[in-house]
Amino acid sequence: MFTVDHSKGEGFEIVKPGEYEVIVMNYEQKTAESGNNRVIVDYEIRSDVDQPCQGQKVLFDNFTVTENAMWRFQQASKAAQFPDGMKFKSYKEWADAFLNKHLRIVVGEREYNGKKYPEVKGFKVSEVSAPDNSITITDDDVPF
User: Fold this and answer.
1) Which of 17, 20, 71, 138 is 20 to 30 Å from the Cα of 117, by its Cα?
2) Does the structure show a pLDDT above 90 at 99?
3) What distance in Å separates the CA atoms of residue 20 and residue 30, rounded to the nearest whole number?
């Protein structure tokens, strides 16, 4: 079990407008109410970078597949450092390639039902190096 400790429930910081180094955590493909295809992306604010809101999520970034919204795919692709001229056979293939990329997002706010939520307004190339995801395992780490 656990013991309730109110002092440990503090410290949650709401993601405020600004720029954040993030990792693309997951995505989902859906159909918008308009009938257009949509890729919905979630980000995690990197904990290995000195910045506010480390470890928090920025959720539900909608990439709607329309000619007028292609700038978002292009800007996100540039921020993810996809090579110029790279081709994708589908938006799922693009989303698969975008997954786990590190980049910098520009966050603003949107209001919904009287509450304010973080909303991705733009994308930039990361200003820090990629996270170190390597894991070193030695013989001392295994039980056999």
Assistant:
1) 71
2) yes
3) 26
